[in-house]
Write a structure and sequence with these properties.
CATH topology of the largest domain: Aminopeptidase
CATH superfamily of the largest domain: Zn peptidases
CATH class of the largest domain: Alpha Beta
Number of strands: 8
Number of domains: 2
Strand content: 5-15%
Helix content: 40-55%
Length: 356
């Protein structure tokens, strides 16, 4: 039996049912105005708790079903998690934000309907976005007008030359750090705040009201070795933020691009009166090269053929199989890793009583 919901609608239904069964306060937000594509929020605990754990899914839509599985498991295991405290700890609240990018989750796209990569969109838009000359030069080869032998050969030749000159980590960072000049391109951060970003900020502003301390865990897949998990902090691993989750924490180093517009970092900046520690919780799946090539194929099909074209749909399914494997072993490691990570976070928030 799969531990991961089969699609967005099944995930949403399961999430709301599980939250209601736990007596959670529920709310829904529809970024596109379509109530069938909603970001759902469940809160368990007092309205002005001083300590808040926030677990988010679906910032990247096609990774969202894995995050949904983590949230469903968390709801199912609340009694076990808080048994040492005789129930929910005093002055503590759990907030689960399901499907920040519901359109992308429903259509198996990383981006929203306007091609905005939301985790490159949470930036200060009063400042001009950074230039990305390397990506801009590569864009005609990354998303060509036609995908054929000639364009593939040109892309591979240019990529090979850059790899030889600069190395794999440099090239990966230049491709994935987020770009703001090519609206039909990969990792496009948008031209202003997306509706989904604005809704997420409003949700978190309301649920962090009155808090002294908060931990934000944003669930992602695709980075790291198969079945392994790591925590990417917005600060150095030896800082207070980077050390908050002791196991698996990593700051931005050579292997991780310094991304502008990351959600957890923006929320921390927006709440200077709250000790907000934000992390991306990553689960490794497939080799980075395979994932990137699949992302490029899906991006080309979306940009040149359209969302509903059969070739785009097949490319999206192929990419999704790399990002959220159907392998039972991987799914079991997803849940086990999330349990370990969240237990670390709970211990930091409420003390040593929180079990693994």
């Amino acid at each position: 039996m799969s531990l991961v919901p089969p699609d967005y609608r099944a995930a949403r239904r399961a999430f709301r049912e599980a939250a209601e069964a736990r007596g959670a306060a529920l709310e829904s937000h529809a970024p596109s105005g379509d109530c069938d594509l909603s970001t759902d929020v469940a809160r368990i605990g007092p309205s002005a708790a001083g300590r808040v754990l926030v677990v988010l899914s679906g910032t990247h839509g096609n990774e969202g079903l894995a995050g949904s599985a983590i949230q469903l498991d968390l709801l199912a295991r609340l009694d076990v998690l808080f048994a040492a405290h005789g129930g929910l700890p005093p002055d503590f609240a759990l907030v689960l934000v399901h499907a920040i990018n519901p359109w992308g989750m429903a259509h198996l796209r990383r981006q929203n309907a306007a091609n905005v990569d939301l985790n490159r969109n949470f930036r200060d838009w009063s400042r001009p976005p950074p230039a990305r000359p390397v990506y801009r030069a590569l864009h005609p080869l990354l998303v060509p007008e036609t995908m054929d032998a000639a364009t593939e050969a040109a892309f591979l030749a240019r990529a090979t030359a850059l790899l030889e000159d600069h190395g794999e980590a440099w090239l990966a960072a230049r491709l994935t750090e987020g770009q703001y000049e090519e609206p039909d391109g990969l990792y496009w951060g948008g031209g202003g705040p997306a509706a989904e970003s604005q809704i997420a900020c409003a949700i978190l502003a309301r649920h962090l009201e009155g808090a002294r301390e908060a931990l934000l865990v944003d669930c992602h897949t695709g980075m790291g070795a198969f079945g392994d998990w790591l925590v990417l902090a917005g600060a150095a691993a030896d800082s207070a933020e980077g050390a908050f989750l002791a196991r698996g924490a990593a700051g931005p180093g050579d292997a991780a691009p310094r991304i502008e517009g990351r959600m957890t970092a923006a929320i921390a900046r927006a709440h200077p009166g709250v000790a907000v520690r934000g992390f991306s919780l990553e689960f490794g799946t497939a080799p980075a090269r395979d994932i990137f090539l699949a992302e490029r194929r899906e991006q080309w099909a979306w940009a040149r053929l359209g969302t509903d074209h059969p070739e785009r749909a097949e490319a999206a399914r192929a990419l999704h199989r790399l990002l959220v494997p159907e392998d039972p072993l991987w799914q079991a490691r997803l849940i086990d890793g999330a349990r370990a990570c969240l237990a670390d976070g709970l211990r930091a928030l409420v003390g040593e009583g929180a079990p693994r």
